[in-house]
Amino acid sequence: MIFSDGLPSRAAADTTPILLVDDEVAILDGLRRQLRKRFTVHTANSGAKALEFLESESVAVVVSDMRMPQMDGATFLSRVRSLYPNVVRILLTGQADTQAAITAVNEGQIYRFLTKPCPPEVLLEEIGSAVELNRLVTAEKELLGTTLRRTVEALVATLSLAQPAAFGRAVRVTRTVTELAGVLQVEEPWDLEVTAMLSHLGSVTLPPNVLAKLDAGRPLDEDEAEMAGRVPGISRDLVATIPRLEGVAQAIGLHRARFDGSGSAPGVPRGEDLPLAARILRLAADFDAGMSQRPSVQATITALQADAGAYDPRVLEALAACHDAPEAQGPPREVDVLRLEAGMVVFDDVLTSEGVLLISRGTVVTDPLIQRLENYVRQDRVGRRIRVQG
């Protein structure tokens, strides 16, 4: 059973929500009376009921009794930690449960344990400290998330202007990664998409003629192949300098490793030990390269399936599933550059009058890209009409 108690005043509506869990209703009532003037108090009389409550409501702190039937407090708080890591956890124990509480603390499952009976002023102080910790952790994650996204967006925008061919390839590969993540039911695909996009940063080191060959699927000579082979390592090293993107950098550095491990250097992981982002990126990149060399999607997938040891079978199956359905974007249409809108997808490579690639096919139109095109149109260096989808 779930109980909620917030005072009807405006002050109560502004207080931090906390959840108290105990199988004895009388104890919950006593705790609620002690805490309701400072916090918005929710209560539950079992771990199962509390977990059900947390599925739909957010709280900053959970305070749980240790001894409860079916699920004890340490087990319950361990579940909370796994499902809602930002929620700060406090365990209330009797003297006989002290050793179990110490074990729970040492395993990192709770923030504090308090022995019963706990003086009201101590409980208020400890919950107040827990609320402040929750605020700091939440604020740091929100700031970090915003900073990371802005950093990635800036790097990608720079790539789009500096190397349009590499950017176009990155966009196409990322789109495939997003589709694969959907079929594989990856809940948070952002890391996978960032891995795909930033894996092409090292392409800024390649001469334009090598980029053109890669984009068209033409064979490279020995020196050119060596240059292209260095791109993943350069991308990895660039990304590794960004805090919290260490996992992305690792996946970029490993994405050319085969799933079956053949040809890999000693110590390079194989199979399920390879990061999922690396496994997905390898297949998406090879699919994009194959599409520039073969007449159809199915011909490309068949060629990839013939070298199945290179890929995670589950990811390969997901790629085939992605292309069971017909193309959803519809046929391309021709529009005037002045009528371009952000979000459209460029259908053909856009070349300048000198034959230089300006925008690669598959590029998603952005406001800076529209401005760049308009500048070239004013100089009569590119045609006014291009084909787009979306």
Kindly describe this structure.
Helix content is 51%, strand content 12%. Strands 1-3-2-4-5-6 form a 6-stranded mixed β-sheet, sandwiched between helices. A 3-stranded antiparallel β-sheet has the order 7-11-8, with no helix packed on it. It is of the alpha/beta class. The chain contains 15 helices and 11 strands. The protein has 3 domains: 137 residues, 3-Layer(aba) Sandwich (Rossmann fold), CATH 3.40.50.2300; 163 residues, Hypothetical protein af1432; 60 residues, Molybdopterin biosynthesis moea protein, domain 2, CATH 3.90.105. About 2% of the residues have low confidence.
Low-confidence stretches: 6-14
- Percentage of residues assigned to helices: 40-55%
Query: How many H/I helical runs?
Result: 15
| Annotated CATH homologous superfamily of the largest domain | Hypothetical protein af1432
Question: What is the CATH top level name of the largest domain?
Answer: Mainly Alpha
Anisotropy-based shape: elongated
Strand order of the largest sheet: 1-3-2-4-5-6
Gap from first CA to last CA:
50 Å
What is the CATH T-level topology of the largest domain?
Answer: Hypothetical protein af1432
Strand content: 5-15%
Q: What is the mean pLDDT? A: 84
CATH architecture annotation of the largest domain:
Orthogonal Bundle
**Category by helix and strand content:** alpha/beta
Oligomeric state of the chains in view: single chain
Largest sheet: 6 strands, mixed
* Series of H and E elements: EHEHEHEHEHEHHHHHHHHHEEEEHE
- How many separate domains? 3
Number of strands: 11
Radius of gyration, taken over Cα atoms and rounded to an integer in Å? 28 Å
